Amino acid sequence: SARFVPPASAPETPAQPAPPVLAPAGDAQHPPWSNTDPDWQPGQPLLARVRPLRPEERPRSIHGRIYGIFDGIRSTEDDRTDLFFRTGAGVSYENLTGHGDRLLFEGELNYRNTNVPDTDDESKTRLRLDRLSYSRGGTRFEPLRWEFGRFLQHGMPEFGVLDGVEIGMRTSDGDRVGASFGFMPEPDAEMSTGDDLQVAVSYRWVRDESERLSFAAGFQKSFHEFAADRDLFVANLRYLPDDGWNFTSTAWVDYYGETDVAKGAGVELTQMYTSVGRRWKDGSTVNLVYTHLAFPDIERDEFLPVLDAQLADDHNDRVAISSRMSLGDETFARAGAGGWIDQDDDGFDGEVGVGFRDVLIHRSFCELTGFVTSGRFLNSLGGRVSLGGYGDTSRWSVDYELAQHHFDGFSDDNDDLPQHRLRVGGDWNSVSGWSVSAHGDVELWDTENAVSLGLYLQRSF
Question: Are 69 and 79 in contact (CB under 8 A)?
Answer without folding.
Answer: no
